[in-house]
Amino acid sequence: MKNLKYFPFERNKYFYGKLLTVSDFESEQKYFNDKRRLLNRLLFGSGIVCGLNTVKVDDTSISVEMGMALDYAGREIVLDNPVIKKLSTIDGFESSSLSKKLYLCIEYAEREKEPVHSISGTSDNEERIEHNKYKEVYRLFISEEEPEPSILSLSNLYENVQTLYNDNKIKVTHLTPKYVNSLGEMYLTVIVENNQQSPFSFFYEVDMPCFTTSDGSNSLKVSFNGSDKEEKTILKFKLKADKLNDTKTDLIVKPESFKMTINDSEVSRLDINCRNSVNIINSHIREAIKKDYFSLSMDEITKNISQHRLYLAQINILNVGETYVIENIKNNPFSQYILNSSLNSVLLDQEIANNIECTDNNYFDDTTNIINNSSPSFSSSSLQNSFTTGVVEIPLGLNPKYNKKYFTEEIIHGLGKGPVYIDLGVEYEESDNNIFNLGHQIIFGDSQIFSKSQYEPSGPLASTGAVTYADKGTFVIGIKLLSNTESSSIKVRWRAYKDLNDNSIDYSDDHNNEFFIRPDTMTLSPRESGHFKVICDNNSNISFNWSIVEAEGGTIDSNGFYTAPSKEGVYEINAESSSDPKLKASAFVIVKEK
User: Fold this and answer.
1) Mean pLDDT, to the nearest integer, of 342-362?
2) pLDDT tier at 498 (50, 70, 90 boundaries)?
3) Which tens digit of pLDDT belongs to each residue from 415-471?
4) Which of 155, 253, 471, 592 has the most C-beta neighbours closer than 10 Å?
5) In what order do the strands lie in the sheet with 529-531?
6) What confidence score (pLDDT) does residue 510 get?
7) What is the sign, positive or negative, of the torsion defined by CA atoms of 67, 61, 324, 93?
8) What SS3 class is residue 472?
9) What phi and psi values does residue 115 have, to the nearest 5 degrees?
């Protein structure tokens, strides 16, 4: 089954008296194989499903454990028994240059088996042999080539990888996310790979018009001093995006700044062209990635069908005279894994648990914060989170009655000013009197639903409500008793949510915020472009409107990107707060031929 083209799907049509030939039976197999492999490819992807770890047996031998993988055509590759081999006996080893780094690869293969006598095309002097079956097997081989990043996965949906320098001995790569939120933070990752035996160093600058470093600069200086022992080094530089609306920008390496020295000898100037594109957006990054994926055609998703091999291991070797010694083995060096639904479920559960633990360590704790003419205490990180929680114990007085209402005093939720959303649940402690032994309970919503059922709590039933005060950052909880009770209080657990991206209402005092434009003066040639941005002292969430005082003073968009007119002159640029016209700042552009 070597035809890797999925389409068109054709299946046999049977009828009485039909003459079945070899092509009919092959078509039958191809139809079901192609359907299954297409689903494998599009629903699961390609990579290792389980097992297939490579371990070192001795200085010259390896063992590949049993396991399963799917290749880029959706075909199953199965090792039903461990395989032990000398490295020198694996295909491709003899033709390799015995470099320090080799890759163990696997690909799908078929082998004919069960030879049988064929009555077709035989003569008196010749016997024809055919094979009765195909056995689906695999082929192990050695390669020195690394795969192209676009072949490995759909990583181009969320990251941008650009090669800055590569001479087969030293490789420098830039990696950035494809998307970052406005005013969000990201990392520029510089990956340095060294496959030579000599020390080296390099230096260059990166121009970043829409990003700033920790010291507020729009230019990043990258320097590296490597030794011959460092095989791979990863450098990370934290950057903050400017306040922009759905803008595509580039991080550009300045070619004239690039300098590299190998063995104290400076490398001649190279033609450097490295730019990483980043989209600054205001929407959720996950939604942007999903939108990009579903805009791809099926041809683009399955375009790597000709890339059959999977990379099982990176084998580092030491050359000892005319022989070799296996130094170490790194399994699945390019992370070609397939996560099945069971594993994804475990990882998702763990991620949810970690998020709850990190953001709300006391949510499932039995300790309580009693609110009675006082406010709960919050950790220092509360204002940075999108939600906070707490427990309030509401006294019912000496004579609690059915349908009576009770209210707390104002509670500070700790999320600052602005609209919040409140979830409330009535909490019941474990009771020995409950025959169903329900233990600790929290009832959300209409508690009357559980009345006279096996789920009815031992304490009083109550309905709950909350009123929020967006301008003060507080709220009040109210309850209404739905049954008579002898309890002296009711415990209510609350959680307050805030959409950090909701800037529809600004409760800040703009008059206490000062802002200015940077740069305050810019010199441009006619029709040249530049970028202005607003710097806020106290509040970075203020929105601005840009304008040019002179009627023919050029153009400027909502993100502060200015294009000079063809006429020389001096022009004034204004940025005005959209919520308070009294707050404004100015800058000037000098347009002249340089």
Assistant:
1) 57
2) confident
3) 777 888 899 998 887 554 444 455 678 888 887 888 878 778 878 888 999 999 887
4) 253
5) 529-531, 561-563, 555-556
6) 43
7) negative
8) coil
9) -65, 135
The contacts of residue 368 (CB under 8 Å, 6+ apart) are 391, 393, 491
Q: Any bridge partners for residue 591, and if so which?
A: 524, 569
Q: At 356, phi and psi to the nearest 5?
A: -65, -40
- Counting Cβ atoms within 10 Å, is residue 212 exposed (0-12), middle (13-18) or buried (19+)? middle
Q: Residue 255: what are its φ and ψ, rounded to 5°?
A: -60, -40
* Of the candidates 493, 501, 540, 491, the residue with the CA atom closest to the CA atom of residue 388: 493
d(CA 497, CA 386): 6
For the record, the structure tokens of 402 come out as 């059915």
Report DSSP state, residue 337.
B
Q: What are residue 562's DSSP bridge partners?
A: 530, 556
CA dihedral 277, 282, 284, 290 (to 10 degrees): -50
Whole-number Å distance between alpha carbons of 486 and 489:
9
Rounded CA separation 281/559 (Å): 12
Give the span between the Cα atoms of 111 and 485, in whole angstroms. Answer: 79
3-state class (DSSP) for residue 403: coil
Report the run of H or E that residue 584 belongs to, with start and end. strand 584-591
What DSSP line would sit under 105-171, residue for residue? EEEEEEEEEEEEEEEEEEETTEEEEEEEEEEEEEEEEEE-PPPPHHHH-SGGGTEEEEEEEE-SSEE
pLDDT at 507 over 60: no
180 confidence band (pLDDT: 50, 70, 90) = very high
DSSP class of residue 43 equals: I
Asked whether residue 221 carries a pLDDT value surpassing 60, the answer given is: yes
180 CB-contact burial (10 Å; exposed 0-12 / middle 13-18 / buried 19+): buried
Q: Is the pTM of this model over 0.70?
A: no
Q: Are 166 and 266 in contact (CB under 8 A)?
A: no
Contact 157/295 with Cβ under 8 angstroms?
no
Give exposure, 438-472, as e/b (b: 16+ Cβ within 10 Å).
eeebebeeebeeeeeeeebbebbbbbbebebeeee
pLDDT at 20: 92
> Is pLDDT above 70 for 525?
yes
Computed over every residue of the chain, the mean pLDDT equals 81
- pLDDT higher than threshold 50 for residue 382: no
| Count of positions (residues) in the chain | 594
Check whether 414 has a pLDDT greater than 60.
yes
Residues 6+ apart with CB under 8 A from 495: 363, 387, 388, 389, 422, 423
Adjacent-strand bridge partners of 233: 192
Distance CA 381, CA 364 (A): 18
